[in-house]
Amino acid sequence: VLRMTQPSAVLSIFAMFLHTTFGESGCTSADGDGTLGDDEPDNFDIDCFSQLEIKDSFSSLTCNFTELPPYNTNYTLSLCTKEDNNYACSNMKKQEDAYFLHFNDILSNRDVCMYSEMKRRVCRSLVVTDIVKPEVPFAINITYEREANEYLIRYCTPHSSKKYLKDKLVHQVAYRQKEGTWKTIESPYLQIKLLGKNLENEASYEVKVRSQPNGDYFKGTWSEWSTSKSFRTAREQYSTESYSSVVMVILSILGFMLSVVMIALIVVFWENRIKPAVWPNLPDHKKTLEQLCKKPKNNFDISFNPESFGYVHIHKVDGLWAKAELENFLQPSTAPETSLPEKFRSGSDLKMIPAMTDKNDLNPPVSYGGAWPAEALHRLLGTSQFAVTEGSCSSSTYQVCHGNRVPLHNDGFNLSYTLSLDPSGQPHPEPLNDDTISQMLPDSDMRSPNNEEAYFTVPNFYKIQ
Amino acid sequence: NPAFFRSTLPVLPLLLVLSPVNSSSCAMGNKTTEIRVKYENILSHDINELVNMSAENRDRCCKKYENIKVFFCNDTEEIESLQSMACNMLRFFSKHRISKAFRWKAAFVSCETLQVLQCKCERPKKER
Description:
Chain A is α+β, with helices and mostly antiparallel strands. In chain A, 23% of the residues lie in helices and 27% in strands.
């Protein structure tokens, strides 16, 4: 029994030792942190980056030694994944000074381990999505927009057609004048614009682009620079702002000059043309009447046709005298009575005739042209004779003197007519001369106080409106 | 009896060694934020590709009704349901003669799902 007990004790103790060393943690190191490190510290310096979907759905890992190990040391790099108690590693391929490996699982936590002859295994953990290096942009295209004076720079990235990094990158555009210093602009889009006013005219520029994960989930480093693209700026980078300002200045000057001219014209033509047109003067009746009563001009044309007054007798009178003189001149003479038709010899008839004359009877009540009812005379000459406008007054030579005892002018061209009756009783025009007057002028007693003088001079007859 | 204790003493360590390791199927637990971020940035794209590829094999996948129940999702047990679906998809498509590219893509999505959930299947995951 003692012999069986001793081996079982040893076995149980060994099992306990193994249980503590090999368990769920999969820990095989003494440090107990879960890594695959030895007791010795992981002091190898490597620089790794990943490239997602570099070939179909496979991603890649590239590592470089920042400090080269001793030349005569054989070493290998492996990408390992912890799975349960197993540790699956894949050796990386050496390409010149770098180690390269394709893989497709970017979610798992990875370790990169270095195997050397001297050290058993040294590992460093890495997260594939935190060391992403995008692919290089390509197809840079530069377009000049003349209207806006801007240069549109467009470029492409291979990740636009892939899954993980599409719209997850930020791009950096660098430009410079030939042999000048680089200037950079960052943008999450696949195009940017350079303002023409910030560039020199007719100069040669160079442009290049690179990309980097935006840091939301994927992190990493800048990609390599794209191939440079050169372009030449326009000859005249005429700023639209300066062009518009020049136009505004010219328009302002023209507007000012136009306003000055308008003001001057208004001032000059205000009294004569503008004001009468805008505020016409109301007719002044006093002035109108004065115009109407203007004396005719000398040598005014005469166009009076007595025959147009066929129903009345109109006698031409060479001159007109004052009524008082006329009365004195005709007072002693009785000869005119004999020449008078019998019909009118009676002064009473003369007296009565004006009263008997109505509006429709235009037969003159007198044969000497002395009395003429004003009413009949008005009808003959028109009732609106006094409604003459100023314009016609200036050329009108018609004049009627009602009870006017002032001597009138005896102008040579003035025709003075009086009305008389033929033996047939029809009035006919007769020029009035001295003899006629002496024969025709009646006694003053025979004058009707209601009759008015019917002498009128008609140097010109106008249609009186 | 001293002999009794000497004979029973090694049993306890053996029991400890032979006892199964207490490991949960999924280790993520309530880390829903981390799960969501990984799903949005990586897993969702591969699932979309698998969906587009499955459209070409629609008749082959869904002919039998009994095959649908293996992908049933229980409410309030999303992680366990996703684990079950991923593991079933690994086993399911390996049994049918479907195009290699599709089977590989399905296995890849299953593995990524289990990785995001930090879950394991009873059987080893299919690897390339």
